[in-house]
Amino acid sequence: MKQKIWIRICLISAFICVCCFFAWMFLRQKGTSQTTAQIIYQGDVIRTVDLSAVKKKESFTVGEPGNQNTIQLSPDGIGIISADCRDQICVRQGIRSHGPEPIVCLPHRLSIRFTDPSPDGSVSDAAALDAVTGQ
Known about the structure:
Helix content is about 25%, strand content about 35%. By secondary structure, the protein is α+β, with helices and mostly antiparallel strands.
């Protein structure tokens, strides 16, 4: 009798975990309408890009020698393709076109945030403060 109750508890727990996982995946995709990226370097917005308007690949470098990141814009999205920091975490984040998490290079204080364009053409800041870089 106790074994049947234990099996039921395990099955119910597994079902709840699977439901929570799918709910988390669904809510995580909430940011898919974000088509604007803000490139923030050392606390200043240096460029705002409408990702839906990008038609060809473009690369540009941000920073001074020894403190540089190369950012690539493409129809697939935006990302950091090379950096001279030691950990290379920013490069491994890849090319993205949306998402709740920004692309961040902490050693160089560079952040790429995805935001929603406002109807008046300005960019609304979905996250007023980036908790990772403090900007």
